[in-house]
Q: What sequence folds into this?
């Protein structure tokens, strides 16, 4: 597989093949084929050998080579397959039985005195042949045989036992046959998918990204169905220690049948995540999903601008481009380190300590590898006015004024020419992990003070990168996975993070401060609450009661609501942040964002009054989340939080109110 | 000429003719109904059934169904005969024979359906 390592850029630019206008010449054009965990080539070897015209930034839509293992078999086909193979053995058994029975009906018997008697009846013949053929052998029933009968019995034994054994062996072989086993497995898979009764996600492609995602989903208690083309990866999935059992299909995600069988049209299918390393397959999946299940959320991974355009046209999926996302984050770190710190903390796994502030240095940057990763980074640096030099084997034409050094980053001489000695920071972003590490080491030997940003392609190299101690490591699969999780579980968090990108350092520090005050030093849990009858019944009820009071004063006349809706005050966010046990204590959560009719309120104040239909984003500890839920569910608790007076009523009364 | 088709047609026709041969005669007269002919009819019917297995077409399904009906009828007929000749020996013979023959006549009907299907299929194919 080609990739965006440096030598390949050379091969690509030498071809003079037509290019997508969006991609200037010199782009490592073979990006489309690169994949997480898929490219293990030695870059030097492929540099010279890569003569095939990997055409640039377009998606190759040629149908993939037929995969014979994925022949679709219905239940009926499996039965027919079995019957067809059993036809001959069954015929043999029937014919042998017929001959044997016929023989016994003809051969005369003998009585105790040696006088010849009539042959066996059809019934007795059949009885004898049956227990003989199955090697049970009860002996000579109903009376001892004549010698003639014994002669025939000898023949029958050899014939029938052989015929019977032949049939059993064929049956066993047919059942153990690979195709039959696959058919059975696929039927079982379909049944399991049919029986899923809760919302689930369809994950297409289970590489590093898919695996990480499935782990997170499993921990969050979300069900998922996996479709993966590589059997070895499915085996790896089987070895994972999941809480829920994994429903996985070994099939090609670009085949519509595969998606349908994996539950695309299942009423509980909430989202489709096209995460394979093949743009064409992702595009096919987006098309299929948008046509067959328009309601499902679509998330797709794309490697080229061309694929992105096609996918957008096909089904408006959320496109996840880890490289651009990372470049944005890096720029955020450059612009406002505090914002980056907050961003990083909020997107980190729950319970991660706050990282020390990362301050990328001002000064010259050197970017090694000008592909999917290096390009967006270099562009953004350049736009910010940071002096950037790009090292790329091909002598790329001056691209927006970015200075390019032709050469191999693993050569000391090239790095020196790029000015590593005087540079402040180095970005190494080829698609080969060992190469990246080697370049970084070499550069550090020239300039030990370098700020190093590394791209890690394969999850299995995490150990190496952890010990290397780079200032920043970019892991595409993690970025994709985290973004998918955020998209699916917390759209409000995404909105909030969008704000974080634009805010100032002082603001970010203030948020971090409040978060640490509220929930401690470890990264907080975030959760969303939609004010509706399901998630906040107590709040809705209270509001309804207050409204009816205001309208007709009818409730007041019953005298029952004397302590409710006191002072006509609505529930404020501040009320929800207090402890249901003791109103003066804080539960340790911060309201990050409120959304009302698509209007966002950042860090809503304590007196912000939520109404039905609003969505709120909170951050805090797991315990805070539980306590808040109590207040939102239980009317009595909510009343206490608002008024300070316990108005818990016996449940029959609560019930009748609820029905009213 | 296709050997497989010859064999297929042969067994279907033979099943029908043997069945007919057994049924032919007065319904309650034992001398008119040879038990060995019933045996032969059963064996040939089973063979015909096996030959019909594994055909996924609609006609194939009806073929198989008619054969299975014939098998069931004939096997029950054989069971009734066995019961009459071995278990309830005192029972009036003519009743047993009548019962066996009527069951076999039912099987004959199913076998005739098979034959009609076979002929229809052949004619449709020719045209």
A:
């Amino acid at each position: 597989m080609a990739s965006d390592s440096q030598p390949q850029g050379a091969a690509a630019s030498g071809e003079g093949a037509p290019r997508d206008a969006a991609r200037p010449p010199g782009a490592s054009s073979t990006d489309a084929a690169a994949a997480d965990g898929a490219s293990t080539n030695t870059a030097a070897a492929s540099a010279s050998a890569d003569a095939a015209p990997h055409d640039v930034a377009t998606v190759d839509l040629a149908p993939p080579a037929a995969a014979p293992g994925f022949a679709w078999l219905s239940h009926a086909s499996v039965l027919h397959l079995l019957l067809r193979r059993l036809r001959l053995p069954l015929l043999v058994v029937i014919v042998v039985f017929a001959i044997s029975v016929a023989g016994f009906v003809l051969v005369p018997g003998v009585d105790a005195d040696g006088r010849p008697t009539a042959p066996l009846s059809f019934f007795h013949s059949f009885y004898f042949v049956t227990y003989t053929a199955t090697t049970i052998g009860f002996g000579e029933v109903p009376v001892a045989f004549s010698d003639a009968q014994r002669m025939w019995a000898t023949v029958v034994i050899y014939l029938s036992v052989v015929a019977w054994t032949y049939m059993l062996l064929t049956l066993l072989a047919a059942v153990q046959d690979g195709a039959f086993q696959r058919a059975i497995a696929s039927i079982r898979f379909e049944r399991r998918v049919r029986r899923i009764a809760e919302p689930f996600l369809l994950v297409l492609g289970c590489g590093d990204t898919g695996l990480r995602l499935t782990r997170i989903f499993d921990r969050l208690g979300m069900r998922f169905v996996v479709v993966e083309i590589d059997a070895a990866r499915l085996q790896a999935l089987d070895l994972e220690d999941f809480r829920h059992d994994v429903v996985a299909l070994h099939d090609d995600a670009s085949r519509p049948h595969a998606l349908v069988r994996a539950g695309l049209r299942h009423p509980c299918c909430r989202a489709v995540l096209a995460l394979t390393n093949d743009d064409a397959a992702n595009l096919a999946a987006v098309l299929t999903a948008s046509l067959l299940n328009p309601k499902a959320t679509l998330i797709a991974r794309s490697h080229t601008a061309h694929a992105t355009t096609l996918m957008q046209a096909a089904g408006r999926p959320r496109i996840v481009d880890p490289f651009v996302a990372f470049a944005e984050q890096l720029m955020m770190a450059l612009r406002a380190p505090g914002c980056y710190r907050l961003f990083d903390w909020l997107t980190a796994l729950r319970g991660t300590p706050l990282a020390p502030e990362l301050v990328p240095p001002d000064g010259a940057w050197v970017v090694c590898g000008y592909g999917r990763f290096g390009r967006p980074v270099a562009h953004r640096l350049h736009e910010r006015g940071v002096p950037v030099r790009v090292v790329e084997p091909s002598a790329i034409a001056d691209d927006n004024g970015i200075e390019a050094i032709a050469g191999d980053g693993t050569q000391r001489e090239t790095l020196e020419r790029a000015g590593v000695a005087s540079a402040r920071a180095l970005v190494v972003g080829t698609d080969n992990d060992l190469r990246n590490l080697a370049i970084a080491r070499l550069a550090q030997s020239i300039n030990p003070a370098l700020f190093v940003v590394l791209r890690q392609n394969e999850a299995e190299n995490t150990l190496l990168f952890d010990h290397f101690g780079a200032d920043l490591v970019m892991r595409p699969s993690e970025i994709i996975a985290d973004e998918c999780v955020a998209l699916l579980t917390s759209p409000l968090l995404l909105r909030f993070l969008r704000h974080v990108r634009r805010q100032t350092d002082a603001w970010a520090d203030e948020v971090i401060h409040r978060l640490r005050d509220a929930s401690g030093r470890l990264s907080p849990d975030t959760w969303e609450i939609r004010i509706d009858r399901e998630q906040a019944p107590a709040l809705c009820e209270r509001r309804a009661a207050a409204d009816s009071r205001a309208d007709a004063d009818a409730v007041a006349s019953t005298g029952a609501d004397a302590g409710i809706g006191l002072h006509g005050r609505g529930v404020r966010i501040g009320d929800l942040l207090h402890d249901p046990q003791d109103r003066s204590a804080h539960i340790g959560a911060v309201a990050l964002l409120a959304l009302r009719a698509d209007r966002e309120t950042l860090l809503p104040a304590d007196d912000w009054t939520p109404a039905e239909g609003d969505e709120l984003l909170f951050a805090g500890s797991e315990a805070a989340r539980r306590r808040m839920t109590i207040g939102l569910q239980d009317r009595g608790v909510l009343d206490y939080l608002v008024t300070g007076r316990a108005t818990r009523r016996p449940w029959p009364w609560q019930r009748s109110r609820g029905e009213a | 000429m296709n050997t497989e088709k010859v064999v297929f047609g042969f067994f279907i026709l033979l099943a029908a003719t043997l069945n007919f041969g057994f049924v032919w005669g007065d319904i309650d007269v034992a001398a008119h109904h040879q038990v060995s002919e019933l045996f032969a009819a059963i064996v040939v019917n089973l063979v015909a059934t096996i030959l019909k297995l594994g055909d996924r077409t609609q006609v194939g399904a009806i073929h198989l169904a008619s054969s299975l009906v014939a098998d069931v009828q004939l096997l029950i007929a054989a069971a009734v005969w066995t019961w009459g000749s071995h278990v309830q020996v005192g029972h009036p013979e003519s009743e047993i024979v009548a019962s066996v023959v009527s069951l076999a006549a039912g099987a004959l009907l199913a076998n005739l359906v098979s034959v009609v299907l076979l002929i229809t299929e052949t004619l449709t194919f020719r045209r």
